[in-house]
Amino acid sequence: MLINDNLTASSIYQQIAQKKAQLANIDKKDFEKSSHEKNDSVNLTNGKNIDEKDYQRVLDKFENLDAKTRAHEQLHASLANTKGAISYNYQMGPDGKLYATGGHVRLDTSIPKDEASAIAKLDRLQKASTAPDGLSSADASIARTANLNKMLLLSKEQEGVQNAN
Q: Name one Pfam family in it (predicted).
């Protein structure tokens, strides 16, 4: 069977087989290259050996930051009602493990209609947001807002007492 310019079906199949073999070789080389890259380690020390003390110092910093971050967010969550679970930001340490380096918890900032309940809840919110050391700007903002709302409620309560007299 003759197809265009002396090309037969068998020669076309032969060319297709050759192209498939070439592609298979390329795929094999790419796979081998990626396998070698997985086993390679990145050398960031410019030929210098990493001191075990330096490695341990960096690892200790990650572990300490992780512990502080978790304790900070858990303290917030334990002192007030929350809207969901604690969310952490992670960074990979030198040992390949993920360490919490930041986080947040959504506190329930809704205010009950009952003034006594509202004041009690605002006190809890203020305590929860200011309890840990190292206040973030979000912590300070929640504390400020809770304090302002509490002052507004107390001033309304004071006006109600004065108007009743």
A: SprA-related
Mean of all residue pLDDT scores within the chain? 81
**And the tokens for 132?**
């840990």
> Which residues, including other chains, have CB under 8 Å from residue 75's CB and lie 6 or more apart?
128, 131, 132
Domain segments of the chain as ranges: 7-39, 52-164
Q: Tokens at residue 64, please?
A: 């300490």
Handedness of CA 119, 125, 130, 136 (dihedral sign): negative
CA 105, CA 82: separation in Å to the nearest integer? Answer: 7
Separation CA 150–CA 126 (nearest Å):
10
Q: pLDDT digits over 102-160, tens only? A: 999 998 888 888 888 988 999 998 898 888 777 788 888 888 988 888 898 888 877 76
